[in-house]
Amino acid sequence: MIRKASLLFTGALIGAVAVTTFSNLPIRLSGAANAAASDTYRQLNLFGDVFERVRSDYVEVPDDAELIESAINGMLTSLDPHSSYMPPKAFRDMQVQTRGEFGGLGIEVTMEEGLVKVVSPIDDTPAAKAGLMAGDFIVQIDGEQVQGLTLNEAVEKMRGPVKTDIKVTIRREGRAEPFDVTLTRDTIRIRSVRWREEGDVGYIRVTQFNEQTYDGLQKAIEEISSKIGNDKLKGYVLDLRNNPGGLLDQAIAVSDAFLDRGEIVSTRGRNAEETQRYNARAGDLTRSKPVIVLVNGGSASASEIVAGALQDHRRATVLGTRSFGKGSVQTIIPLGANGAIRLTTARYYTPSGTSIQAKGIEPDIVTLQDLPEDMKGRAETTGEAGLRGHLSSEKPEGEDVKEESGSQAYVPADPKDDKQLNLALDLLRGVQANSAFPPSAEQQKAAVPN
Protein backbone atom coordinates (compact mmCIF):
# COMPACT_ATOMS: atom_id res chain seq x y z
CA MET A 1 0.00 0.00 0.00
CA ILE A 2 1.40 3.38 -0.92
CA ARG A 3 1.43 6.27 1.52
CA LYS A 4 1.13 9.59 -0.30
CA ALA A 5 2.65 12.83 0.95
CA SER A 6 -0.79 14.37 1.26
CA LEU A 7 -3.06 11.99 3.08
CA LEU A 8 -6.17 12.26 5.22
CA PHE A 9 -6.95 9.49 7.69
CA THR A 10 -10.53 8.59 8.52
CA GLY A 11 -11.50 7.13 11.84
CA ALA A 12 -11.89 3.71 10.28
CA LEU A 13 -8.31 3.67 9.05
CA ILE A 14 -6.92 4.97 12.32
CA GLY A 15 -8.80 2.24 14.14
CA ALA A 16 -7.25 -0.39 11.93
CA VAL A 17 -3.74 0.42 13.09
CA ALA A 18 -4.03 0.72 16.82
CA VAL A 19 -1.61 0.55 19.73
CA THR A 20 -1.41 -3.21 19.82
CA THR A 21 -0.14 -5.92 22.12
CA PHE A 22 -0.33 -9.67 21.60
CA SER A 23 -1.73 -12.20 24.02
CA ASN A 24 -1.93 -15.98 24.08
CA LEU A 25 -3.59 -16.05 27.49
CA PRO A 26 -6.78 -18.09 27.87
CA ILE A 27 -9.94 -16.18 28.65
CA ARG A 28 -10.83 -16.46 32.35
CA LEU A 29 -13.96 -15.35 34.12
CA SER A 30 -13.71 -13.37 37.35
CA GLY A 31 -15.57 -14.44 40.50
CA ALA A 32 -18.34 -11.98 39.76
CA ALA A 33 -18.64 -13.27 36.22
CA ASN A 34 -18.89 -16.86 37.46
CA ALA A 35 -21.69 -15.87 39.79
CA ALA A 36 -23.64 -14.43 36.86
CA ALA A 37 -22.70 -17.16 34.40
CA SER A 38 -25.93 -19.10 34.70
CA ASP A 39 -28.01 -16.03 33.83
CA THR A 40 -25.67 -15.21 30.96
CA TYR A 41 -25.93 -18.68 29.44
CA ARG A 42 -29.71 -18.56 29.71
CA GLN A 43 -29.63 -15.32 27.74
CA LEU A 44 -27.43 -17.01 25.14
CA ASN A 45 -30.36 -19.30 24.39
CA LEU A 46 -31.89 -16.29 22.65
CA PHE A 47 -28.99 -16.26 20.20
CA GLY A 48 -29.47 -19.97 19.55
CA ASP A 49 -33.18 -19.49 18.90
CA VAL A 50 -32.56 -16.66 16.42
CA PHE A 51 -29.75 -18.56 14.70
CA GLU A 52 -31.95 -21.62 14.16
CA ARG A 53 -34.85 -19.50 12.90
CA VAL A 54 -32.57 -17.81 10.33
CA ARG A 55 -31.18 -21.17 9.20
CA SER A 56 -34.61 -22.68 8.72
CA ASP A 57 -36.73 -19.78 7.45
CA TYR A 58 -34.51 -17.28 5.61
CA VAL A 59 -35.46 -16.83 1.95
CA GLU A 60 -32.13 -18.35 0.80
CA VAL A 61 -29.92 -20.95 2.46
CA PRO A 62 -27.43 -18.96 4.56
CA ASP A 63 -23.80 -19.85 5.21
CA ASP A 64 -23.59 -20.93 8.87
CA ALA A 65 -19.94 -19.87 9.24
CA GLU A 66 -20.67 -16.41 7.87
CA LEU A 67 -23.64 -16.01 10.23
CA ILE A 68 -21.54 -16.87 13.29
CA GLU A 69 -18.63 -14.71 12.12
CA SER A 70 -20.97 -11.75 11.65
CA ALA A 71 -22.52 -12.32 15.07
CA ILE A 72 -19.09 -12.36 16.74
CA ASN A 73 -17.99 -9.24 14.90
CA GLY A 74 -21.23 -7.49 15.79
CA MET A 75 -20.68 -8.23 19.47
CA LEU A 76 -17.13 -6.86 19.40
CA THR A 77 -17.81 -3.78 17.28
CA SER A 78 -20.65 -2.82 19.62
CA LEU A 79 -18.03 -2.29 22.37
CA ASP A 80 -15.98 0.44 20.69
CA PRO A 81 -14.66 1.32 17.21
CA HIS A 82 -11.39 -0.57 17.70
CA SER A 83 -12.54 -3.99 18.90
CA SER A 84 -13.27 -6.49 16.14
CA TYR A 85 -13.04 -10.07 14.91
CA MET A 86 -10.33 -10.93 12.39
CA PRO A 87 -10.95 -13.96 10.16
CA PRO A 88 -7.84 -16.05 9.43
CA LYS A 89 -6.82 -14.10 6.31
CA ALA A 90 -7.27 -10.72 8.00
CA PHE A 91 -5.22 -11.99 10.96
CA ARG A 92 -2.42 -13.10 8.62
CA ASP A 93 -2.47 -9.73 6.86
CA MET A 94 -2.24 -7.94 10.20
CA GLN A 95 0.76 -10.07 11.19
CA VAL A 96 2.49 -9.16 7.92
CA GLN A 97 1.86 -5.49 8.61
CA THR A 98 3.23 -5.58 12.16
CA ARG A 99 6.20 -7.78 11.21
CA GLY A 100 7.14 -5.32 8.52
CA GLU A 101 8.46 -7.97 6.14
CA PHE A 102 7.02 -10.38 3.58
CA GLY A 103 7.85 -12.26 0.41
CA GLY A 104 7.34 -9.98 -2.55
CA LEU A 105 8.82 -7.81 -5.29
CA GLY A 106 9.67 -4.53 -3.55
CA ILE A 107 7.51 -1.95 -5.29
CA GLU A 108 5.25 0.76 -3.94
CA VAL A 109 2.12 0.80 -6.08
CA THR A 110 -1.20 2.55 -6.52
CA MET A 111 -4.21 2.00 -8.77
CA GLU A 112 -4.74 4.26 -11.77
CA GLU A 113 -7.03 3.78 -14.78
CA GLY A 114 -7.89 0.32 -13.45
CA LEU A 115 -4.23 -0.75 -13.64
CA VAL A 116 -1.48 -1.11 -11.06
CA LYS A 117 0.92 1.81 -11.37
CA VAL A 118 4.44 1.66 -9.97
CA VAL A 119 5.05 4.63 -7.70
CA SER A 120 8.61 3.63 -6.94
CA PRO A 121 10.74 0.50 -6.72
CA ILE A 122 12.41 -0.01 -3.35
CA ASP A 123 16.20 0.01 -3.47
CA ASP A 124 17.98 -3.36 -3.62
CA THR A 125 14.83 -5.43 -4.21
CA PRO A 126 13.82 -7.71 -7.12
CA ALA A 127 11.79 -4.88 -8.71
CA ALA A 128 14.71 -2.43 -8.61
CA LYS A 129 17.20 -5.02 -9.88
CA ALA A 130 14.87 -5.94 -12.76
CA GLY A 131 14.69 -2.31 -13.88
CA LEU A 132 11.07 -1.52 -13.04
CA MET A 133 10.57 2.24 -13.06
CA ALA A 134 8.26 4.76 -11.45
CA GLY A 135 5.35 5.34 -13.81
CA ASP A 136 5.32 1.79 -15.22
CA PHE A 137 1.89 0.16 -15.46
CA ILE A 138 1.49 -3.51 -14.59
CA VAL A 139 -1.16 -4.84 -16.99
CA GLN A 140 -0.85 -8.57 -16.35
CA ILE A 141 0.34 -10.76 -13.47
CA ASP A 142 1.32 -14.30 -14.51
CA GLY A 143 -0.77 -13.87 -17.65
CA GLU A 144 -3.90 -12.69 -15.79
CA GLN A 145 -5.28 -9.26 -16.69
CA VAL A 146 -5.01 -6.72 -13.87
CA GLN A 147 -8.04 -4.82 -15.19
CA GLY A 148 -10.94 -5.72 -12.92
CA LEU A 149 -8.84 -6.55 -9.85
CA THR A 150 -8.78 -4.36 -6.78
CA LEU A 151 -5.42 -3.00 -5.63
CA ASN A 152 -5.42 -5.40 -2.66
CA GLU A 153 -6.13 -8.37 -4.94
CA ALA A 154 -3.28 -7.38 -7.26
CA VAL A 155 -0.87 -6.88 -4.35
CA GLU A 156 -1.86 -10.26 -2.91
CA LYS A 157 -0.98 -11.92 -6.25
CA MET A 158 2.43 -10.26 -6.33
CA ARG A 159 3.27 -11.38 -2.82
CA GLY A 160 4.23 -14.98 -2.20
CA PRO A 161 6.89 -17.37 -0.92
CA VAL A 162 10.50 -16.22 -1.18
CA LYS A 163 12.46 -17.65 -4.15
CA THR A 164 9.36 -18.22 -6.29
CA ASP A 165 9.09 -16.65 -9.74
CA ILE A 166 6.41 -14.31 -11.05
CA LYS A 167 5.95 -12.79 -14.52
CA VAL A 168 4.55 -9.28 -14.82
CA THR A 169 3.63 -7.55 -18.09
CA ILE A 170 4.67 -3.90 -18.16
CA ARG A 171 3.32 -0.98 -20.16
CA ARG A 172 5.88 1.84 -20.23
CA GLU A 173 5.61 5.26 -21.78
CA GLY A 174 7.88 5.51 -24.82
CA ARG A 175 7.64 1.83 -25.69
CA ALA A 176 5.20 0.79 -28.36
CA GLU A 177 4.35 -2.63 -26.93
CA PRO A 178 4.00 -4.07 -23.42
CA PHE A 179 6.85 -6.35 -22.37
CA ASP A 180 7.26 -9.17 -19.85
CA VAL A 181 9.58 -9.17 -16.84
CA THR A 182 10.20 -12.29 -14.74
CA LEU A 183 11.17 -11.63 -11.13
CA THR A 184 12.06 -13.88 -8.21
CA ARG A 185 10.34 -12.94 -4.96
CA ASP A 186 12.57 -12.04 -2.03
CA THR A 187 12.12 -10.92 1.56
CA ILE A 188 10.88 -7.32 1.48
CA ARG A 189 11.11 -5.15 4.55
CA ILE A 190 8.61 -2.33 4.90
CA ARG A 191 10.49 0.91 5.54
CA SER A 192 8.60 2.45 8.40
CA VAL A 193 11.42 4.98 8.91
CA ARG A 194 12.81 7.30 6.24
CA TRP A 195 15.33 10.03 6.76
CA ARG A 196 17.40 12.69 5.07
CA GLU A 197 19.70 15.55 5.89
CA GLU A 198 18.11 18.99 5.70
CA GLY A 199 21.39 20.90 5.66
CA ASP A 200 22.47 20.92 9.30
CA VAL A 201 19.25 19.30 10.61
CA GLY A 202 18.29 15.63 10.64
CA TYR A 203 14.79 14.85 9.35
CA ILE A 204 13.29 11.48 10.41
CA ARG A 205 9.86 10.38 9.19
CA VAL A 206 8.15 7.46 10.97
CA THR A 207 5.16 6.19 8.96
CA GLN A 208 4.04 3.37 11.29
CA PHE A 209 5.21 1.39 14.30
CA ASN A 210 6.05 -2.14 13.17
CA GLU A 211 8.76 -4.56 14.27
CA GLN A 212 11.36 -2.73 12.14
CA THR A 213 10.73 0.79 13.47
CA TYR A 214 13.22 1.11 16.32
CA ASP A 215 16.02 -0.44 14.25
CA GLY A 216 15.22 2.01 11.45
CA LEU A 217 15.28 4.95 13.85
CA GLN A 218 18.62 3.87 15.28
CA LYS A 219 20.10 3.59 11.79
CA ALA A 220 18.68 7.00 10.86
CA ILE A 221 20.25 8.73 13.86
CA GLU A 222 23.62 7.06 13.29
CA GLU A 223 23.71 7.93 9.58
CA ILE A 224 22.55 11.54 10.05
CA SER A 225 25.05 12.16 12.84
CA SER A 226 27.85 10.65 10.75
CA LYS A 227 27.05 12.61 7.56
CA ILE A 228 26.40 16.02 9.13
CA GLY A 229 28.86 15.67 11.98
CA ASN A 230 27.77 15.86 15.60
CA ASP A 231 29.41 19.26 16.10
CA LYS A 232 27.48 20.79 13.16
CA LEU A 233 24.17 19.01 13.76
CA LYS A 234 21.54 21.48 15.02
CA GLY A 235 18.98 18.86 16.02
CA TYR A 236 16.27 16.55 14.74
CA VAL A 237 12.77 16.80 13.31
CA LEU A 238 10.76 13.68 14.18
CA ASP A 239 7.80 13.60 11.78
CA LEU A 240 4.84 11.58 13.09
CA ARG A 241 2.20 13.24 10.94
CA ASN A 242 -0.44 10.89 9.52
CA ASN A 243 1.16 7.99 11.39
CA PRO A 244 -1.77 5.81 12.49
CA GLY A 245 0.11 3.87 15.17
CA GLY A 246 1.12 0.25 15.56
CA LEU A 247 2.97 -1.77 18.18
CA LEU A 248 3.12 -0.53 21.76
CA ASP A 249 6.61 -1.92 22.39
CA GLN A 250 7.96 -0.02 19.38
CA ALA A 251 6.40 3.25 20.58
CA ILE A 252 8.13 2.70 23.92
CA ALA A 253 11.47 1.93 22.23
CA VAL A 254 11.27 5.02 20.00
CA SER A 255 10.47 7.24 23.00
CA ASP A 256 13.34 5.65 24.95
CA ALA A 257 15.75 6.57 22.14
CA PHE A 258 15.37 10.24 23.10
CA LEU A 259 15.10 9.87 26.91
CA ASP A 260 17.65 9.10 29.61
CA ARG A 261 15.19 8.20 32.37
CA GLY A 262 11.63 8.53 33.57
CA GLU A 263 8.27 7.00 32.74
CA ILE A 264 7.30 6.73 29.08
CA VAL A 265 3.72 5.52 29.33
CA SER A 266 1.42 3.58 31.64
CA THR A 267 -1.50 1.34 30.71
CA ARG A 268 -4.46 0.81 33.00
CA GLY A 269 -7.06 -1.89 32.50
CA ARG A 270 -10.36 -2.50 34.23
CA ASN A 271 -8.70 -3.70 37.44
CA ALA A 272 -6.08 -1.74 39.40
CA GLU A 273 -3.68 -4.70 39.50
CA GLU A 274 -3.49 -4.66 35.70
CA THR A 275 -1.68 -1.29 35.64
CA GLN A 276 1.70 -1.42 33.91
CA ARG A 277 4.35 1.29 33.76
CA TYR A 278 7.12 1.48 31.17
CA ASN A 279 10.27 3.43 31.97
CA ALA A 280 13.18 4.71 29.90
CA ARG A 281 16.65 3.26 30.19
CA ALA A 282 19.80 5.34 30.38
CA GLY A 283 21.17 6.52 27.05
CA ASP A 284 19.87 9.21 24.69
CA LEU A 285 20.82 8.17 21.15
CA THR A 286 20.74 11.78 19.96
CA ARG A 287 23.21 12.97 22.65
CA SER A 288 20.63 15.48 23.94
CA LYS A 289 20.32 17.32 20.61
CA PRO A 290 17.18 19.50 20.33
CA VAL A 291 14.13 17.69 18.96
CA ILE A 292 10.91 18.96 17.38
CA VAL A 293 8.08 16.45 16.92
CA LEU A 294 5.57 17.07 14.13
CA VAL A 295 1.99 15.83 14.66
CA ASN A 296 -1.39 16.43 13.03
CA GLY A 297 -4.93 15.08 12.97
CA GLY A 298 -3.71 11.83 11.43
CA SER A 299 -1.21 11.11 14.25
CA ALA A 300 -2.81 8.44 16.41
CA SER A 301 -2.23 5.89 19.11
CA ALA A 302 1.47 4.89 19.19
CA SER A 303 2.36 8.27 17.64
CA GLU A 304 0.58 9.99 20.50
CA ILE A 305 2.47 7.90 23.05
CA VAL A 306 5.79 9.14 21.64
CA ALA A 307 4.68 12.75 21.32
CA GLY A 308 3.13 12.72 24.80
CA ALA A 309 6.20 11.21 26.46
CA LEU A 310 8.67 13.65 24.89
CA GLN A 311 6.33 16.59 25.53
CA ASP A 312 5.70 15.74 29.20
CA HIS A 313 9.42 15.34 29.88
CA ARG A 314 10.10 18.61 27.99
CA ARG A 315 12.55 16.61 25.89
CA ALA A 316 10.98 17.86 22.68
CA THR A 317 8.70 20.60 21.42
CA VAL A 318 5.55 19.34 19.71
CA LEU A 319 4.54 21.34 16.63
CA GLY A 320 1.59 21.05 14.23
CA THR A 321 -2.09 20.46 14.93
CA ARG A 322 -4.01 18.47 17.56
CA SER A 323 -3.56 14.71 17.22
CA PHE A 324 -6.28 12.12 16.64
CA GLY A 325 -7.01 11.30 20.29
CA LYS A 326 -6.87 7.50 20.39
CA GLY A 327 -5.80 6.59 23.91
CA SER A 328 -6.68 2.90 24.11
CA VAL A 329 -4.70 -0.33 23.82
CA GLN A 330 -5.90 -3.29 21.77
CA THR A 331 -4.76 -6.81 22.63
CA ILE A 332 -4.69 -9.37 19.81
CA ILE A 333 -6.02 -12.71 21.12
CA PRO A 334 -5.38 -15.57 18.66
CA LEU A 335 -8.17 -18.15 18.24
CA GLY A 336 -6.14 -20.96 16.71
CA ALA A 337 -7.22 -21.69 13.14
CA ASN A 338 -10.20 -19.36 13.52
CA GLY A 339 -8.31 -16.06 13.30
CA ALA A 340 -8.17 -13.70 16.26
CA ILE A 341 -10.02 -10.99 18.10
CA ARG A 342 -8.78 -7.46 18.61
CA LEU A 343 -10.06 -6.38 22.02
CA THR A 344 -9.65 -3.05 23.78
CA THR A 345 -8.13 -3.98 27.14
CA ALA A 346 -6.66 -0.77 28.57
CA ARG A 347 -6.30 2.99 28.33
CA TYR A 348 -2.83 4.48 28.14
CA TYR A 349 -1.58 7.54 29.99
CA THR A 350 1.26 9.94 29.31
CA PRO A 351 3.97 10.33 32.00
CA SER A 352 2.02 13.17 33.69
CA GLY A 353 -0.91 10.79 34.16
CA THR A 354 -2.97 12.33 31.35
CA SER A 355 -5.28 10.27 29.18
CA ILE A 356 -5.56 11.67 25.67
CA GLN A 357 -8.58 9.49 24.83
CA ALA A 358 -10.99 11.58 22.73
CA LYS A 359 -8.87 14.67 23.44
CA GLY A 360 -5.58 14.26 21.60
CA ILE A 361 -2.15 15.82 22.13
CA GLU A 362 -2.18 19.59 21.97
CA PRO A 363 0.96 20.90 20.24
CA ASP A 364 3.20 23.38 22.04
CA ILE A 365 3.21 25.36 18.79
CA VAL A 366 0.03 25.20 16.71
CA THR A 367 0.76 25.66 13.00
CA LEU A 368 -1.76 25.24 10.19
CA GLN A 369 -0.85 24.42 6.62
CA ASP A 370 -1.92 26.59 3.69
CA LEU A 371 -4.53 24.53 1.86
CA PRO A 372 -4.98 24.37 -1.92
CA GLU A 373 -8.44 25.40 -3.10
CA ASP A 374 -9.62 21.84 -3.75
CA MET A 375 -8.70 20.78 -0.18
CA LYS A 376 -10.45 23.57 1.72
CA GLY A 377 -13.15 22.17 3.96
CA ARG A 378 -11.87 18.59 3.51
CA ALA A 379 -8.52 18.62 5.28
CA GLU A 380 -9.59 17.67 8.80
CA THR A 381 -9.99 14.29 10.47
CA THR A 382 -12.96 13.74 12.74
CA GLY A 383 -10.72 12.38 15.46
CA GLU A 384 -11.52 9.73 18.05
CA ALA A 385 -14.21 11.93 19.61
CA GLY A 386 -16.11 11.81 16.32
CA LEU A 387 -16.21 8.00 16.12
CA ARG A 388 -19.51 6.44 17.04
CA GLY A 389 -19.30 4.34 20.21
CA HIS A 390 -15.82 5.58 21.21
CA LEU A 391 -14.59 5.23 24.77
CA SER A 392 -15.31 8.43 26.63
CA SER A 393 -12.51 10.62 27.88
CA GLU A 394 -11.84 10.49 31.59
CA LYS A 395 -13.25 13.42 33.52
CA PRO A 396 -11.45 14.16 36.82
CA GLU A 397 -13.87 14.69 39.69
CA GLY A 398 -15.23 18.22 39.70
CA GLU A 399 -13.90 19.01 36.21
CA ASP A 400 -15.79 19.35 32.95
CA VAL A 401 -13.48 17.98 30.25
CA LYS A 402 -14.56 18.69 26.70
CA GLU A 403 -14.01 15.88 24.23
CA GLU A 404 -12.18 17.22 21.21
CA SER A 405 -9.72 15.53 18.92
CA GLY A 406 -8.76 15.41 15.30
CA SER A 407 -7.70 18.41 13.25
CA GLN A 408 -6.06 19.39 9.98
CA ALA A 409 -4.19 16.44 8.50
CA TYR A 410 -2.86 17.83 5.24
CA VAL A 411 0.82 17.56 4.35
CA PRO A 412 1.96 19.24 1.11
CA ALA A 413 3.72 16.99 -1.39
CA ASP A 414 6.51 19.53 -1.89
CA PRO A 415 8.58 20.17 1.28
CA LYS A 416 9.03 23.80 0.19
CA ASP A 417 5.28 24.30 0.82
CA ASP A 418 5.30 22.51 4.18
CA LYS A 419 4.85 25.30 6.75
CA GLN A 420 5.14 22.95 9.73
CA LEU A 421 8.41 21.40 8.56
CA ASN A 422 9.91 24.73 7.53
CA LEU A 423 9.05 26.35 10.86
CA ALA A 424 10.65 23.40 12.68
CA LEU A 425 13.83 23.80 10.59
CA ASP A 426 13.90 27.57 11.22
CA LEU A 427 13.50 27.08 14.97
CA LEU A 428 16.30 24.53 15.13
CA ARG A 429 18.60 26.84 13.16
CA GLY A 430 17.66 29.90 15.21
CA VAL A 431 16.18 31.72 12.20
CA GLN A 432 12.86 32.07 14.05
CA ALA A 433 12.13 32.11 17.77
CA ASN A 434 9.27 30.82 19.89
CA SER A 435 8.89 30.70 23.66
CA ALA A 436 8.03 26.97 23.47
CA PHE A 437 11.38 26.10 21.85
CA PRO A 438 13.66 25.04 23.27
CA PRO A 439 11.92 24.15 26.55
CA SER A 440 13.17 26.56 29.20
CA ALA A 441 14.89 25.53 32.41
CA GLU A 442 11.69 26.41 34.30
CA GLN A 443 9.64 24.20 31.97
CA GLN A 444 12.07 21.34 32.38
CA LYS A 445 11.91 21.68 36.17
CA ALA A 446 8.11 21.60 35.98
CA ALA A 447 8.20 18.43 33.89
CA VAL A 448 7.14 15.11 35.34
CA PRO A 449 9.57 13.64 37.90
CA ASN A 450 12.31 11.45 36.43
TrEMBL record:
Keywords assigned by UniProt, alphabetized: Hydrolase, Protease, Serine protease
Residues in PDZ domain copies: 91-159
Region of interest (Disordered), residue spans: 378-417
Keyword Hydrolase applies: yes
Keyword Hydrolase: yes
SUPFAM superfamilies per the UniProt record, alphabetical: ClpP/crotonase, PDZ domain-like
Top-level taxon of the source organism: Bacteria
SMART domains, sorted: PDZ, TSPc
Compositional bias segments (type: Basic and acidic residues): 391-405
Pfam families named in the record: CtpB_N-like, PDZ_2, Peptidase_S41
Similarity comment text for this entry: Belongs to the peptidase S41A family.
NCBIfam families for the chain: prc
PANTHER family per the UniProt record, alphabetical: CARBOXY-TERMINAL PROCESSING PROTEASE CTPA, TAIL-SPECIFIC PROTEASE
Name of the protein: S41 family peptidase
Species this protein is from: Pannonibacter anstelovis
